Amino acid sequence: MNTISEETSKRITSLRFLLMLFVMIKHNAIVRDIFRHELPFYEPGIVTFIKEFLAKGFGELAVPVFFIFSGYLLAASSNSYFTILKKRFRSIFLPYTIWTFIYFAGWLCLKHFHFTYGNPVSGWREWSFIDYFVRFIGYYHNLRFPFVGSFWFLRDLMILIVISPILIFVAKRLPFLLTVMCSFFYFCSISIPLVLPVSLFFFVFGILCSIYKIDFFRLADKIKWHELIFLFLAAFVLFKLKPSYNIYGDIKNTSYFFIFIFSGIFLLFKFSLIIINNEAAFSLAKKAAPFTFFTYAFHTPILLEVVKQVTFRITLVEKYGGAVRSLSQFIIACILDIGISLAAGILLYKICPAIFNLLSGGKRNR
Question: β-strands 251-252, 139-140: how paired?
């Protein structure tokens, strides 16, 4: 197996917390076609575009890059399969389980205080064992992420790690076939059992890069900044000008979507070099990296819902709408959501590092 270089390790570390911020900003951006089909208030088109650019532009990049790094690091590991499973049990399954029970208890408490907005435990006393089980694992036939929706990527990652020996075996012997198969599922948005096509495609991409020593960071460095920026912005604008929808009313991915996704991914890869070359920036990124998962897990679903409701009332955006109120609600929500979540992680680490490490998957601050 390969071993990754020090520079590659640093560049991956440099992006960890930043990727999480992109997702959190996406979750706070109340825009059409992401979490609701209609805006709950009026806002000018330019404000909608700004929010959609942050949510659907930068926000959509985090998951693919996360799975690329996961597949790459797994394939590069010299540990045995059972050692990897043991480590991932602590770093993925255990925090997934603990946080799920925490949020179940939290929703029950909020239900007792008549907080019903976004509360998924309505009728929980009538649930069968199967109901509890599918809400825990987050998947049942065509029903995805019914309880702690933000943890869907952990579920997908657990499944991909379990089947990783098969993926690595096929990647070594039939790389072209594996690439075509995963590409077909992803680009055609074909539903497959247990994992999402985006998870499988980019996880396998990371595995292939590791096995065949493809340095995606170096590839990004060779592309000029203005070329990537032009592709990213132009593809996003074209994607927004000609959106298409499926029979359920959800937006469908088009060729423009994939162009801005891949150009955006390479922009992030290229940007990581700037971070590691700046001593202060990399030091900050390295210090923030261990708090990545805890901050993300803490921010949603309960805190996110509370923050949205609080900022609605502070800004009066639901009643009056408008550009200033809409942008203010979005900015204040992001600051509160990210700030409270990060502060909670830092405080818990200071008070009880053992509990922090347990909840964050055993990642130790350095």
Answer: unpaired
